[in-house]
Specification:
The complex is a heterotrimer of chains A (306), B (556) and C (300). With 306 residues, chain A is mainly alpha-helical. Chain A contains 13 helices and no strands. In chain B, a hairpin with a 2-residue loop joins β6 and β7. The chains are: A mainly alpha (306), B alpha+beta (556), C mainly alpha (300). Chains A and B meet through α2, α4, α5, α6 and α11 of A and α1, α7 and α13 of B.
Chain lengths: 306, 556, 300
């Protein structure tokens, strides 16, 4: 297994390099730059602005400068939009917020999603299946930009239990995580149900039952292990997505997380911040996919590391 | 199966309907009101401020949210009267103007101080403006200093010796500014625009080169300013907190203890935050909510004139827009009354001229006049009777629900009234700006907000080659008039020239004026000391929040 | 010699041979017995027909504005009410459905096809091939989507095909991973070894034996992908790709309705309801399909 992990980590190097390079050049070909503004500036000022940020140098030179800073100093450069802050700082400020939001949401999602999914699978095609599936469907049918405001209107404005936005006290965590969690819970529930149904008909389940194992044991020790496989495959990138924040949730609830920066940095043409967030996201994806692959083999002994 | 999905959707629908009966008193202040050192509740003003600021250095930023922040932190030579925006003494307690209108002499206060207690001298101003004009520093608003002798040349790198620029410190407390032309609105700019604020050079120097835009001097703890408030805390994308500056010369007038600015990019979310009482003032109000506020919370609704215009640019180099009859037909076929009444709903005023009426006493006499019949006639004359032969034309707007609604309405008006089909195209902001710069559009939605109160701001844009023109329109007579206006001896003469310029614009129509902006937002009625102004500038030193009357002593 | 000869030929009972069921006919048979799934399928068909033909029956066009009327609640003249520009919501909803269902199905089909083929191939071959293919998936995950789409628009203009490319480019990735995971888990099963041992070609094994056996999670994930696609289309219209106004789609209608839900509840409730109805139908149909195709549940 360790050879497998080592080999995978070695593979990530060219992957990350490719992603950074591709993004670096991609963003420069997009129309509009960091200093394209509604009130136009004179060409001299524009030239000086670009010189300050090194944008007047030939592209390959900028690229080597950037990579050099990145690899030898871990320096992601200054933000083009937020003049006095560096990308390292911005990420260091916002990542913990996104991690917190993500972790709580994921906890909610897994808790409710797995329960609903198992109920639906075990009580297949019965009333409980439909009830559980329908509740799970809320997360899919009601998009976050609808669910969020509805929750705010009811719990914050009508009942007055929460603030309508902000991320200051612990209570402020509740509504955003609930909104985000419900969406992911829906996915988890559906995938769990599907995966469990695959497994529940298999011979080894029948064997376990024939051997007299309790239903609870059959479900949770045997069936869930196999049934959870599609959830795990989905979870890898889902965790990366949820950890780096959700743009919509952060906008609705005014949360200073990284999700907004992913999208806004592209809209602002803040080249360094785009690259910084992409590098972060790419690293996360790669690591999480690796973990997912390892867990898959662990759960299904028939698979082997190749 | 219907039952099953009703199970999930019906409760949500019920929630929706119930939440319509919200009982919270909107605008009730009290979110997290902190307690001061002496145990008294602090007077805190919570403001929704739009986008997260780019920075807090007045010589680096370019936006409106930044302007609100900087106005509370800094003060210029003169400061605006809260009701009229007329310049009143600020850092300068008095000033004189020479007879030829070119030389201003400002006398600084003795007690003009930075928030770290150090005195402010005339030389500080001279050096601040040097930083602003240094080419390498690349300040984007440096052109607002170009009224001063030598400033433009120095800024463009043509002049190397700063002492030849028209800023001079005659002594510790006397600053002399020499202009190129008599500029009647000069003091008005100084009062309201942050590009003329002084910056604490000694502090800046501690954190890096003076001409480096990206130093850390603006971080809380490092930051020093000279206005009624000082920076206490800055949590990016969360809030900026300011507290009273005890060294401010007029600190006694300042009533607020703290101001908190919240960046609120989503205006629906902002409105909900206002309703829970967390905000005292919002930056905007969603169009759909204006009527609801009129009916239910009229004391919280603010609709105020704003010096800006919403218009459509026309690319006059692209047929059929090169024919001014077509342009006029398009302009006349828009039912502006219906638009502001039914679509934007914010009580805006329809615009039939480019100049904003009543700007510093100027109102254009020339107005766009003509009815639908004339529009059809003009279109037919130009070769497109009832829309026949009409080529491909696109209407470009930047993605926003507001702009889309207006564009859809106008597209329909053109179709119904003229029989022509104009295709709608939306682009994301930077791509849209890029299209504008490259003149890659037919009709483009645009807005222009004045930096200072003078009719000049709307008219100077349309000269040939002006960076913000972007229509390809070029008119020699217009250019001559614009140059003459700069040399006018007094406002009357100047305004007469502007009348002629407006007349040309209404005749040629390189742009179609649509409506004049209004500021529409929600505000806690307890906020006082606040008056509507054309630039939406509200000097914070006069603002206070009405206290609840003390409850009668409770009987046990 | 006494011989008993039959006077008549003995009537023969026709011998019934047991009919073999192919996977697909068996599945169809089982599916048609599943009432909920059938209901879902029928609902989808009815919705699609309504969206295609409904607007032709209405006296309103999706773009006819009535500015003075503005947003009005459901009434006899406008069954679902009107939007803020006075346009009939019912017609707009149906026309929007053409876009959403069309894009939803087509883009998902694209993503499905690419994802399944790619994931199955990677899972089957394993080793270096799998590693290389999965690393490409990792790369595509990480590239910034917004920028990618803007670039596409710069180079290729703004046509509808680009919409499918953009959406498909994002959605096939997770599908590929799921399929790969499933394939890898059944790769070692006996029936696959049996197929291999009798010399079946690789393509035949992948497509005729492996994929049908992993259809369960694929179907489930597909039904989850379609709503994501519909909402992604709403995001893309923000970037200027996708339908141009006055045309609209469910995603855009819901987004607009969400901002006005307190004042004009019908602008959210009706698009939301039809959206949910579609999704529910899809899911129940998908579940039914999954059950029908489940080779391990008994035939009877």
């Amino acid at each position: 297994m360790f050879r497998f992990i080592a080999r995978r980590l070695l593979q990530t190097i060219p992957v990350l390099w490719f992603i950074v390079t591709a993004t670096f050049f991609m963003i420069r070909f997009v129309p509009g730059g960091p200093f394209t503004a509604e009130k136009a500036v004179t060409p001299e000022i524009l030239r000086n602005l670009e010189a300050h940020y090194g944008l007047d140098k030939p592209l390959y030179e900028q690229y080597f400068d950037y990579m050099g800073n990145l690899l030898f100093h871990g320096d992601l450069g200054p933000s083009f939009k937020y003049a006095s802050r560096t990308v390292n700082e911005i990420i260091a400020d916002k990542l913990p917020v996104s991690i917190e939001l993500g972790a709580i949401s994921l906890g909610i999602a897994l808790f409710f999603g797995l329960i609903l999914g198992v109920i639906a699978a075990v009580k297949r095609n019965s009333f409980f299946d439909y009830l559980a599936s329908s509740v799970a469907m809320i997360g899919i049918c009601v998009p976050t930009f609808v669910l969020g405001p509805i929750l705010v209107l009811f719990f914050a404005i009508h009942l007055g239990w929460f603030n309508a936005s902000g991320w200051y006290t612990n209570i402020d965590r509740v509504l955003p995580s609930a909104t985000l969690g419900m969406v992911y819970a829906a996915y988890v529930a559906r995938l769990t149900r599907g995966g469990m149904l695959e497994v529940l008909n298999q011979d080894y389940i029948r064997t376990a039952r024939a051997k007299g194992a309790s239903e609870f044991r059959v479900i949770f020790r045997h069936a869930l292990r196999g049934g959870i496989l599609p959830v795990i495959s989905f979870l890898g990138p889902a965790i990366a997505g949820i950890l780096t924040g959700s743009f919509v949730i952060e906008t609705i609830f005014q949360i200073p997380g990284l999700g907004r920066e992913f999208v806004n940095s592209a809209f602002n043409r803040d080249y360094t911040l785009v690259l910084g967030t992409v590098i972060l996201y790419a690293s996360l994806i790669v690591i999480l996919n690796l973990i997912v692959d390892v867990v898959q083999v662990w759960l299904n002994p028939k698979l082997k590391f190749e | 199966m219907i039952r099953r999905f009703l199970v999930s959707y019906l409760p949500l629908a019920a929630v929706l309907i119930f939440s319509g009966c919200a009982k919270n008193d909107p605008g009730s202040s009290g979110y997290d009101a902190p307690i001061g050192a002496d145990g008294q509740k602090l007077m805190v003003y919570n403001v929704g401020n739009g986008a997260e600021p780019q920075d807090l250095d007045p010589q680096v930023v370019t936006g409106v949210p930044e302007s609100n922040l900087l106005m509370s932190l800094f003060e210029g030579l003169v400061t605006p009267d809260p009701k009229t925006l007329d310049p009143v003494p600020g850092m300068a307690e008095s000033w004189e103007l020479s007879d030829d209108g070119l030389v201003y002499t400002f006398h600084l206060r003795e007690n003009a101080k930075w928030s770290n207690g150090e005195r402010i001298f005339a030389e500080d101003f001279v050096q601040s403006y040097k930083r602003m004009l240094t080419p390498v520093f690349a300040a984007e608003y440096s052109y607002l200093l170009w009224f001063v002798v030598g400033a433009e040349d120095y800024n463009r790198g043509k002049l190397e010796d700063y002492s030849k620029v028209g800023f001079k410190a005659l002594d510790e407390r006397t600053l002399q500014v020499t202009l190129n032309n008599p500029t009647p609105f000069f003091l008005r700019i100084l009062a309201t625009h942050y590009s003329w604020y002084p910056v604490p050079l000694k502090v800046i120097a501690q954190f890096g080169s003076l001409t480096d835009k990206s130093t850390r001097w603006t971080q809380p703890g490092n930051f020093v300013s000279n206005g009624p408030f000082q920076l206490k805390d800055w949590l990016p994308n969360q809030r900026i907190v300011m507290e009273r500056n005890p060294h401010y010369w007029d600190a006694e007038t300042v009533k607020l203890d703290q101001i908190r600015f919240y960046p609120t990019e989503d205006i629906s979310s902002e409105e909900r935050t206002f309703r829970t009482g967390q905000l005292d003032k919002t930056n905007e109000l969603p169009n759909a909510k204006v009527d609801a506020y009129r009916k239910n919370y009229p004391e919280s609704l603010r609709i105020e004139p704003y010096l800006g215009i919403y218009y459509y640019r026309l690319n006059v180099t692209r047929p059929p827009l090169d024919d001014k009859r077509v342009r006029k037909a398009l302009a006349l076929a828009i039912d502006r009354d219906s638009l502001v009444r039914n679509v934007t709903r914010g009580g805006q005023d329809p615009a039939y001229a480019v100049s904003y009426p009543g700007t510093a006493g100027y109102t254009a006499r020339a107005q766009l006049t003509g009815d639908l019949a004339e529009a059809k006639r003009l279109l037919a004359e130009a070769g497109f009777p009832n829309g026949e032969n009409w080529p491909h034309v696109e209407l470009l707007y930047n993605t926003s629900e507001n702009h889309r609604a207006i564009a859809e309405a106008i597209q329909q008006m053109w179709r119904t009234n003229l029989g022509i089909n104009v295709q709608l195209t939306n682009q994301e902001w930077k791509v849209y700006l890029d299209s504008q710069d490259n003149q890659d559009y037919w009709v483009q939605r645009a807005g222009w907000i004045a930096d200072y109160v003078d009719p000049n701001v709307f008219l100077e844009i349309w000269t040939t080659g002006n960076l913000n023109n972007d229509t390809g329109w070029s008119n020699a007579e217009y250019d001559q008039l614009a140059a003459a206006a700069l040399k006018a001896k007094n406002d009357n003469d100047r305004y007469e020239i502007y009348q002629q310029m407006d007349a040309i614009l209404v005749d040629e129509l390189p742009v179609i004026p649509i409506y004049y902006y209004k500021r529409v937002y929600a505000m806690n009625p307890k906020v006082k000391g606040y008056w509507p102004t054309l630039l939406d500038n509200h000097p914070v030193k006069y603002i206070y929040i009405e206290e609840e009357p003390e409850p009668a002593a409770e009987s046990e | 010699m006494p011989t008993i000869l039959p006077s008549e030929p003995i009537p023969e009972e026709p011998i019934e041979l047991e009919q073999g069921f192919s996977l697909w006919s068996d599945a169809w048979h089982r599916l048609s017995k599943n009432k909920i799934a059938v209901f879902g399928g029928v609902t989808l068909i009815v919705l699609t027909i309504a969206c295609i033909f409904g607007p032709l029956l209405s006296s309103y066009s999706y773009e006819d504005q009535n500015l003075n009327l503005g947003a009005s609640a459901p009434s006899m003249s406008h069954w679902l009410g009107t939007d803020t520009l006075g346009r009939d919501l019912l017609v707009r909803l149906l026309v929007g459905g053409r876009i959403s269902i069309g894009v939803g199905l087509c883009a998902t089909l694209v993503a499905l096809t690419i994802g399944v083929v790619y994931g199955a191939t990677a899972g089957f071959f394993g080793g270096k091939t799998d590693a290389f293919m999965m690393r490409i998936v990792d790369i595509m995950y990480a590239l910034p989507f917004t920028i990618f789409v803007i670039l596409l628009m710069v180079f290729f203009g703004r046509n509808i095909v680009l919409l499918f490319v953009a959406i498909g480019a994002v959605e096939w990735l997770t599908m590929a991973r799921i399929v790969r995971g499933q394939i890898m888990s059944i790769k070692k099963m006996e029936f696959i070894e049996a197929a291999r041992s009798i010399g079946l070609g690789k393509r035949r094994i992948i497509f005729r034996h492996m994929i049908p056996n992993v259809l369960g999670p694929i179907i489930v994930y597909t039904t989850l992908t379609i709503p994501a696609v519909m909402l992604l289309e709403a995001f893309l219209s923000f970037l200027g790709l996708g339908v141009q106004p006055p045309l609209s789609s469910w995603g855009v209608l819901i987004k607009d309705g969400a901002e006005k839900m307190e004042e004009f509840w019908w602008l959210l409730v009706f698009p939301g309801t039809i959206f949910s109805l579609t999704l529910f139908s899809l899911n129940f149909l998908g579940d039914g399909l999954r059950d029908a195709l489940d080779v391990r549940s008994s035939k009877d």
